[in-house]
Amino acid sequence: xxREVKGMLTKSYIARTIKMSRMSKGYTQQQVADRLGKxxxxxxHWETGYSQPDLGTLCELLNLLNVSFDExxxxxxxx
Length: 79
Known about the structure:
By secondary structure, this protein is mainly α. 61% of the residues lie in helices and 8% in strands. It contains 5 helices and 2 strands. A two-stranded antiparallel ribbon has the order 1-2.
């Protein structure tokens, strides 16, 4: 079941979603970076909104963190 979450989709929202999803899985930034073939600094930049992953990397990241595309980009949350 899904429900719409009110609010604007912003870089900070995406960054927060990445960080919270990573933390809820118990992964460190380094672990995520290693799994994606990136540096820890790159993952940190995604989580602060300084930069964002390219589409291919984003798909890999969402799969790794078990987060749906809808949750991040359509502001729809699983219930």
